[in-house]
Design goal:
Layout: H1 15-31, H2 39-62, H3 65-91, H4 97-126
Helix pairs in contact: 1-2, 1-4, 2-3, 3-4
Amino acid sequence: MSERRNKNRGFKQLHVWQHALELYKLTIEMLETMHFQHQKSKANTADAAHSILRNIAEGYCRRSAKEYLNFLNIALASCGELNSSMLAFNASKLIDDESFETFDKLHYQTENELLALAHAIQNKINLKQPWDESYAPKKKD
């Protein structure tokens, strides 16, 4: 598969988006082992995981600091929803402790990266810095 690049696809270079994608994949993998009778809860949980990376991307692609921050906050809310669901599944013994620990480490990392990115964008807004390439990850040569 060839790599297609443009300014609108810069979100793919963000570590937080990459980790959110890994978190989504891990969540799907863990949910596949659960019983069918939990189908609605599984679907809602998968959607919360997917919402994190979708909102990071959508906010980035809006190319407005205020809109970006708004979408990052939506992603953070989805982080909370995902964590709550997985905690409940673990407490109900639908997910074992070892699997939950693997999930929780990646979730914690992703959530902290999101918090840091939201804080950085808020600082740029406070300084009245317009959207520019400083919002995008730096290209590595």
